[in-house]
């Protein structure tokens, strides 16, 4: 297992000497373990270059004693704090394609099972099972739309927010009480967008769902697979 931080070249990126000195983005939800069960059933300690990369997680949005908790897993798309601190902004890169992703040249950007940890199967790289269901472009399009809704919802300096605050002040806060019943704000539109994606035929056919970013406190965009 390698990283673009310490390897001269990657199938995703070529890092020159100047870039190596700069911080590179990676999916900070991931972690690696060296003690795991091989696919042949043997539990043992492995070398660092054979560490499993934990890329999918328990579905914390369901009760721990429910069938959905035991049958579903989630892949977390992280925030990009380097892109914006003014509003939640998420990575539009498929896990495994980030500049500092852990790479395994044997896997060729495919999720390749290598071992079992905590009752689940993982590979050696940052590529997650999500790559079996979404292409890089499909994920990028979805996350770009999510980011756009959030940008519009959190931008306080827009003409709409300035006018809204002025009218609300002049009407002694009555305006906002009317506004939320008459007009959709971008964050409400984001919820509608999530429902639309989840109800689409491609997502239904793949048993795939987006969990509303609101449920994670806008800390991640989570994809759930049954």
TrEMBL record:
Its main location: endoplasmic reticulum. One of its GO terms (cellular component) is endoplasmic reticulum palmitoyltransferase complex. It is found in: Endoplasmic reticulum membrane. It is a peripheral membrane protein. GO terms for biological process: protein targeting to membrane. It comes from the Eukaryota. Residues 74-222 form the Golgin subfamily A member 7/ERF4 domain. Keywords: Endoplasmic reticulum, Membrane. The keyword Metal-binding does not apply. Interacts with ERF2. Belongs to the ERF4 family. This is Ras modification protein ERF4.
């Amino acid at each position: 297992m390698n990283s673009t931080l310490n390897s001269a070249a990657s199938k995703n990126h070529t890092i020159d000497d100047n870039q190596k000195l700069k911080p590179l983005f990676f999916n900070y939800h991931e972690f690696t373990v060296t003690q795991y069960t091989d696919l042949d059933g043997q539990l043992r300690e492995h070398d660092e270059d054979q560490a499993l990369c934990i890329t999918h997680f328990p579905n914390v949005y369901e009760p721990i004693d429910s069938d959905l908790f035991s049958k579903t897993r989630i892949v977390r798309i992280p925030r990009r704090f380097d892109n914006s601190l003014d509003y939640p902004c998420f990575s539009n890169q498929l896990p495994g394609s980030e500049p500092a992703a852990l790479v395994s040249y044997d896997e060729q950007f495919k999720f390749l099972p290598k071992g079992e940890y905590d009752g689940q199967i993982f590979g050696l790289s940052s590529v997650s099972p999500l790559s079996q269901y979404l292409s890089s472009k499909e994920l990028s399009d979805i996350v770009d739309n999510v980011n756009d809704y959030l940008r519009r919802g959190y931008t306080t300096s827009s003409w709409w927010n300035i006018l809204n605050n002025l009218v609300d002040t002049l009407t002694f806060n009555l305006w906002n009480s009317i506004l939320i019943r008459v007009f959709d704000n971008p964050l409400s539109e984001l919820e509608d967008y999530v429902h639309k994606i989840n109800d689409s035929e491609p997502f239904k056919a793949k048993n795939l769902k987006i969990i509303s970013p609101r449920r994670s406190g806008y800390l991640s965009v989570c994809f759930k697979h049954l």
